Each structure stands twice: as C-alpha cells, then as structure tokens.
C-alpha cells in the first residue's frame, strides 16, 4: 500500500514518485540494452535468460506501485534532467562499453528505486535491493565471459600433466608440449609431496614464461600463488571460485570442473574464467561412475560462451565428436602425455582443433 504522508510531507512524496517514475524507465531501458548485448553481442543464451529474468522481475516489482500515482506524478516538462546529457553519455566506442554503461545506469536507477520507495511504499524497497545485487552478479558474469572469450580465444588444446619421474623427465615432457603448441598446461599431481609439487610448479613457470602457453595448477591456489602460475583449477568439492580468487587475486585465471548444465550455469555466475566439462568419455587417468558425455557438451555449447573445455578420455580418434557436439576446446591427459611422441600427439590434436 502506498503511504499517506502528512500534508507537510506530501511535497516530498510527489518528488519521490517522480524520481521513482524516472528511475523505473531508466532501469528497464538499461536492462533491455544489456539483454540485447548478451543476446546479439555475446550470443550467450544463459546470460540472455538471466538478463531477461532480472528485467521481468523489475516489471513485476514496479507493478506493486500504483500506476495511476506514478502517472500523476510524472511531469517531464518540469524535469530539469530532461535534455541534460554528458559528453561521456554520448561517447560509445564499442559494444562492451555500451553494455557496461547501461548496466551502471540500471544499477544506479535500482538504487534510486530502492531509496525513494522507502519514503512512499517501503515494503517494495527490498525487491529493488535484490534486483541490484542480481545485476552485480550479472555484470561479473558478463565481464568474465567477454574478457576470457578474448584472453583464451586461441586456447583450444589444454593438457594435464603430472610431475613426471624426475625433474629432467618433467622438463623434457614440458619442452615437447610447448613445441607441440599446447595452449594451457595444468600441473595435476596428487601423489608427490608439497615440496616437489612446488619445485615442479616453479620449473613449469620458468619454462612457460618464455612461451605463450598458460600455466595452471590443479587444486592448489597456495601452490599457484607461490609459483606465480597463471591460475588454478578447482573441482566441485574444493575451494570455491571466490575463495580461490581471494588467494590469487583478480587477474589470475580460475577454472572450475562441471559435470552438469546446472553446475556450468553456476560456474558462470560465480565468475569462473573457464569451465571443464566432463567426463565426456571413459578415462584411463581418472575413473568415474557417471558420464554426462556428449549430451553435456551439446548443452554447454548451446547456451554458454564462457570458454569451455570438454574433458575425459578425449583423443585424436574421438575429438571430432566433441567438435561436432559444439565445443572446439578440449583438455586431455593420457592422449598426449602418455603418447610415444608427445610433441607429435599434441601438434596433431592442435591442428584438428584449429582446423588447419
Ligand atoms: C580442465 C579441467 N577440467 C576438469 C578437471 C577435474 O578437476 P576435479 O574435478 O577437481 O578433479 P581432479 O582433477 O582434482 O581429480 C581438471 N583437473 N581440469
Ligand atoms: C582429471 C579429469 N577430470 C575429468 C572431469 O570430467 O572432470 S576427466 C579427467 C581425466 C582427464 O584425463 P584423460 O584425458 O586421460 O581422460
Ligand atoms: Mg580437483
């Protein structure tokens, strides 16, 4: 119910309704532009659905106000803000900037709605607060998708390796993998002690920093930090994206394993930089009871634009099935690391993935 303010406050109420009316329009317009950006600019069905849901829920919250009161308060003739636009508002150089400005516009307008509704219809205010928080989550997911689609644009072959028999064996393996054109190398070894793991990680850092290959540490943000790796990969039962970032900082990559479309959607909202999608096929490296398989690859490819690497039992023999299911990025271990000629196996997979 809208509040009957005492006569002395009725002027404030009128001002509040006018601010609410203007903010409602700005928020809806801003959200529509954001939705169009994720739909047409990113081609991301998941983010489009999220943006649309926020916009629809805004419409529902605004319906809690009396439209008659809002219209009565509308007085654009006397609105000193009409026709006032800054140079920054006019300057738009790319699609992403349009999305960012409109997200900010929507967030500021939601804040206005939240504050001014406290004066005239306080029970509605928390809905706008919730919508503002959801818009921050959306912003984080849009930024991660956009930035990583570009940062990892060429990253199609991702190889998981262990610490090897000894340091020389490890260094030889890494040399061949880098020469074979591997885009991302992950150090994944659950059997060596922490001291050896860190030594291998530091060695890998040195070798990859002279190349364009990214270096990720599996499971261990602490080791990733100490070795100055490019990032960490975490599983569903491990530290969250937020916790991994708290250790590593915002600039490092945080990847997450996903085994269902719900987990993949969640990872996007959590602000992951990329996702692993699997297991696709039975694996010699790790055993699984369940295989979401190519169905999950298809689901992810249909709606998510955050870089996604299919994983699990992938080799030169079956990688075409993954590509046909819609993903052009794969993470492999056995097919490359256990091959007789590691460099050749990597280069072969790479050329299939890059279609060259
Ligand atoms: C790229 C990539 N995807 C998935 C995994 C698996 O991670 P997780 O589920 O945590 O299992 P472990 O590797 O820790 O056994 C991965 N490592 N890399
Ligand atoms: C470590 C790991 N995680 C998977 C997942 O689906 O999350 S599949 C997998 C094993 C990857 O090795 P290979 O290419 O030898 O099967
Ligand atoms: Mg793990």
Which key terms come to mind for this protein?
TIM Barrel; 356 residues; 15 helices; Ferritin; thiamine biosynthesis; 2 domains; magnesium ion binding; binds the ligand Cc1nc(C(=O)O)sc1CCOP(=O)(O)O; binds magnesium ion; 8-stranded parallel barrel; elongated; binds the ligand Cc1ncc(COP(=O)(O)OP(=O)(O)O)c(N)n1; alpha/beta
Strand order of the largest sheet: 1-2-3-4-5-6-7-8
- N-to-C series of helices and strands: HHHHHHEHEHEHEHEHEHEHEHH
Number of helical regions: 15
User: What small ligands are held by the chains?
Assistant: ligand LCLJCK34, the ligand Cc1nc(C(=O)O)sc1CCOP(=O)(O)O, magnesium ion
How many domains, in number, for the residues?
2
Count the beta strands.
Answer: 8
Largest sheet: 8 strands, parallel, barrel
Cα distance spanning the termini? 65 Å
**Radius of gyration from the alpha-carbon trace, in angstroms:** 25 Å
Task: Look at the structure and name the CATH superfamily of the largest domain.
Answer: Aldolase class I
Mean of pLDDT: 93
Q: Would you write up a description of this structure?
A:
- With 356 residues, this protein is α/β, with parallel strands linked by helices.
- It has 2 domains: 7-149, Ferritin (Up-down Bundle), CATH 1.20.1260; 152-353, Alpha-Beta Barrel (TIM Barrel), CATH 3.20.20.
- Helix content is 56%, strand content 10%.
- The protein contains 15 helices and 8 strands.
- An 8-stranded parallel beta barrel has the order 1-2-3-4-5-6-7-8, surrounded by 5 helices.
- Helix 7 links the parallel strand 1 (157-161) and strand 2 (184-187).
- The longest helix has 32 residues, at 10-41.
- The chain is elongated, with a radius of gyration of 25 Å.
- The protein starts with 9 loop residues before the first helix and ends with a helix.
- The structure holds the ligand Cc1ncc(COP(=O)(O)OP(=O)(O)O)c(N)n1, ligand 3NM and magnesium ion (MG).
- Magnesium ion binds at residues 218-219, 235, 238.
């Amino acid at each position: 119910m809208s509040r009957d303010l005492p006569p002395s406050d009725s002027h404030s109420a009128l001002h509040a309704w006018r601010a609410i009316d203007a903010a409602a329009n700005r928020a809806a317009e801003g959200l529509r532009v954001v939705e169009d950006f994720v739909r047409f600019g990113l081609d991301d069905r998941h983010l489009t659905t999220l943006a649309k849901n926020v916009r629809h829920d805004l419409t529902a919250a605004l319906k809690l106000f009396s439209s008659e009161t809002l219209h009565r308060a509308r007085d654009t003739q006397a609105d000193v803000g009409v026709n006032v636009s800054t140079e920054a508002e006019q300057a738009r150089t790319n699609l992403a900037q349009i999305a960012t400005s409109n997200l900010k516009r929507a967030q500021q307008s939601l804040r206005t709605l939240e504050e001014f509704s406290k004066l005239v219809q306080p029970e509605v205010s928390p809905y706008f607060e919730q919508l503002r928080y959801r818009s921050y989550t959306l912003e984080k997911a849009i930024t991660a998708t956009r930035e990583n689609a570009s940062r990892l644009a060429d990253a199609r072959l991702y190889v998981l390796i262990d610490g090897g028999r000894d340091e020389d064996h490890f260094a030889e393996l890494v040399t061949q993998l880098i020469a074979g054109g591997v885009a991302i190398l992950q150090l994944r070894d659950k059997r060596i002690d922490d001291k050896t793991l860190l030594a291998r990680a530091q060695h890998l850092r040195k070798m990859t920093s002279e190349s364009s290959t990214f270096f990720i540490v599996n499971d261990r943000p602490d080791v990733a930090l100490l070795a100055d790796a490019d990032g960490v990969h975490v599983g569903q039962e491990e530290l969250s994206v937020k916790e991994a970032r708290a250790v590593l900082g915002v600039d490092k990559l945080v990847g997450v394993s996903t085994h269902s479309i719900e987990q993949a959607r969640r990872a996007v909202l959590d602000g992951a930089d990329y996702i692993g999608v699997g297991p696709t096929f039975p694996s010699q490296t790790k055993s699984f009871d369940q295989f979401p398989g190519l169905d999950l690859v298809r689901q992810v490819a249909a709606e998510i634009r955050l870089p996604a690497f299919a994983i699990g039992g992938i080799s030169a023999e079956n990688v075409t099935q993954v590509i046909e299911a819609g993903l052009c990025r794969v993470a492999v271990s056995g097919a490359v690391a256990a091959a007789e000629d590691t460099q050749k196996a990597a280069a072969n997979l790479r050329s299939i993935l890059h279609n060259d």
